[in-house]
Amino acid sequence: MGTTCCPECTDGQSCGKYHVYVIELSRDAAGRRGLPRVDLLHHPDRRFYYVGMTAHTPACRFRQHQLWVDEEVKDFPCTCFGQGEEVMRRFGRDGVNGTRGNRLAGDFGIELVWRLVRGRNPLPTQDEGFAEEKRLAAELRAKGHGVHQA
Ligand SMILES: [Zn+2]
Ligand SMILES: [Zn+2]
Fold first, then answer.
1. Which of 19, 47, 109, 146 could lock onto 23 through a cystine, CB 3.0 to 4.6 A?
2. Which residues span the domain enclosing 46?
3. Counting Cβ atoms within 10 Å, is residue 5 exposed (0-12), middle (13-18) or buried (19+)?
4. CA dihedral sign, ordered 75, 68, 10, 134
5. Cα(first)–Cα(last) distance of the chain, in Å?
6. Residues lining ligand 1 (ion), CB within 5 A?
7. Any domain includes 129
């Protein structure tokens, strides 16, 4: 039972609550809009991170970001809700219907960093999820990492 990001989710299915997650971004993301400058020369241990929040499993959400950057892709496969059956869900490019992805996470995302969210998930409400997302991003920024959180 449980995944690396949430003790209540299973591999394919979301527990239905909210999850904060962190995706480590490649150094190639340096200089992209939405990312602060980081002095990697003097602080080689610093990283670029994308911090987000989702009701899907973080693994599903990461895949959404990766699929989103391909303009041809209109739907993404999801097993998070219901009985674990895969359904195709529509991306909403108007931001009204369906979900969107993030270009930084999709183009430069390397992996979900589960150790940074250990003990934080799940969050019972969306408001608590947003609050935790902001808190987590602030903690990583305080350590000097380059964080995108929106
Ligand atoms: Zn969960
Ligand atoms: Zn999903």
1. 109
2. 19-148
3. buried
4. negative
5. 31
6. 6, 8-9, 15, 122
7. yes
In a domain, 96, yes or no: yes
C-beta separation of 78 from 89 below 8 A: yes
- Ligand nearest to the backbone CA of 81: 2
> Rounded distance, CA 5 to CA 23, Å?
12
Number of domains in the chain: 1
| Ligand 1 geometric centre to CA of 24 (Å) | 20
Give the distance (Å) from ligand 2 centre to CA of residue 13: 8
Is residue 73 in a domain?
yes
Closest ligand to Cα 129: 1
Residue 37 Cα to ligand 2 midpoint, Å, equals 32
> Is 137 contained in some domain?
yes
**136 and 120 in contact (C-beta within 8 Å)?**
yes
Compute the distance from residue 39 Cα to the ligand 1 centre, in Å: 35
pLDDT by residue for the chain (150 residues), tens only, comes to 566 789 999 878 999 999 999 999 999 999 999 999 999 899 999 999 999 999 999 999 999 999 999 988 999 999 999 877 899 999 986 655 678 899 999 999 999 999 999 999 999 999 999 999 999 999 999 999 999 998
